[in-house]
Amino acid sequence: MDRSMKYYYREHILGYQRVKAEGKTAWHEIHGGTGFENFSSCAFLERALPQLQFSTPKPTVLEYGCGTGPGACFLAQRGFQVDAIDLIPMAIEMAKELARERKLDIHYGVQDICELPHEGKRYDMIVDSYCLQCIVADGDRESVFSAVRTRLKPTGYYLISTAMFDESRFRVEQHSWDVESGIVYTAYGDDIIDAETSTVYEVLDEEPEDYPDAVKIANTWYLPYRRHLKPPVLRAELEAAGFGVRYQDDVHGGDLICTPKSVTEKVVAYVTQGDRLLLFSHPHHPEAGIQVPAGTIEEGESPQEAVLREAQEETGLPGLEIRSYLGMREVDVSTNSGPKIQRRHFFHLMLRGEVPARWRHFEEHPSDGSTEPIEFELFWAKYPGELPELSGGQGELLHRLAPRLRHGKSTVTGSP
Q1: Between 345 and which of 192, 244, 303, 314 could a Cys-Cys bridge form, CB atoms 3.0 to 4.6 Å apart?
Q2: Is 394 found in the same domain as 287?
Q3: Residue 333 to residue 277: CA distance in whole angstroms
């Protein structure tokens, strides 16, 4: 076993070795379950699927953490076009064989959901059948949710079954205080739990140097093992990650139907000339703050086309050129009217030719629906020393300009 792997590999490598050695067909069978078809999230899927509406008779679905494929087979038998991934090659080999035996056409692949590329096929539904509780670290969970958001269609569904905090395992009278970290850990069945984060740790009975995620707690080595949240905390986490929770079961709270928050695609332009960045203010609306050219991507328009159009409309400048794509950020702009996300694509644009130090320009066709032209006062500021704070989070990727300006980058790089 490659001991340099992340914390969640160890359990699953050993688990699927046991599944195969004992002649089992699925993970749940080594934990007291019986039969390939009686997998843990089966009952929830049977309840949930009739509630969902799809625009095609054969919706596409991605199941991550699929194991040997009981959930994937269940979905394929009900007419879904199924892609399924798991990080353990042995599990995927078994899944392919079990699907062949059932004459099911399922596309399986070895893939860590925490490292799923954002680019690629988008799905009508993404399914998590008891994988999420094994993703412990905040950064890893954010990676999962980010991947799901980008690979789920705007009208798609995110179905989750996950283990939750179990009050019966919590032994408040049995606790230990780790002097070094100041954290109090409480007995949680045979394990311990940090009640503040709901992170469960299991005793590590191997050499700790082989496991980079191992932690020493009160003179004993542990490995992060589970994240067992309470229902309101899980719901809040999903909502903060860009999902609306349409259903959460009221028994234990671990079965959920989620949909992506409404996404508006935006572009943001950092226009430079030499070491200067172009900014503007609203003379009649100073409360709007200092901004850079930005706007909404129109239907049928690429981000590259949109950023050039918006920059020209808001500055009146010809001769703008895209130099690089700086990256994407998602911003929660939800209101009382519903959950909403802005997906902002940041570009570096360069300007050639002479321009004034300061000038005014009217945007004739504002994207906010205004009937009157909007007046902008445009000016240059030296980068990075003279930049004021930009409003609305527009300055989030300004730091990525530095190497491009420093090295005089002149070739077009990157794409959304």
Answers
A1: 303
A2: yes
A3: 26
Q: Is residue 384 part of a domain?
A: yes
Classify residue 2: in a domain, yes or no: no
Whether residues 52 and 120 share a domain: the answer is yes
On the question of pLDDT at 92 being above 50, the answer is yes
Across all residues in the chain, what is the average pLDDT? 91
Q: How many domains does the chain have?
A: 3
In this predicted structure, the answer to whether residue 53 has a pLDDT above a threshold of 50 is yes
Same domain, 54 and 181: no
Show the tokens assigned to 140.
């890893």
Q: Largest Cα–Cα distance in the chain?
A: 77
> Which residues sit opposite 262 in a β-bridge?
340
Highest mean pLDDT among 99-108, 254-263, 327-336: 99-108
The predicted model gives 374-384 an average pLDDT of: 93
**Domain boundary, last residue among 260, 280, 315:** 260
Residue 411: band (very low, low, confident or very high) from pLDDT cuts 50, 70, 90:
very low
Q: Tokens representing 278?
A: 């172009």
**Token pair of 170 as six digits:** 């919590």
The predicted model scores a pTM of 0.68
List of residues 6+ apart from 96 with CB closer than 8 A:
69, 106, 108
- Angstrom distance (rounded) from CA 106 to CA 109: 10
In a domain, 208, yes or no: yes
Same-domain pairing of 124 and 195:
no
Q: What contacts 245, CB < 8 A, 6 or more positions away?
A: 235, 238, 239, 256, 257, 258
Residues 94 and 33 in one domain: yes
pLDDT tens, residue by residue, 178-208: 888 889 999 999 999 999 999 999 999 888 8
Cβ–Cβ < 8 Å for 228, 200: yes
Residues in the chain, overall count:
416
Q: Which domain holds residue 209?
A: 167-227
What's the CATH code of the domain at 295?
3.90.79.10
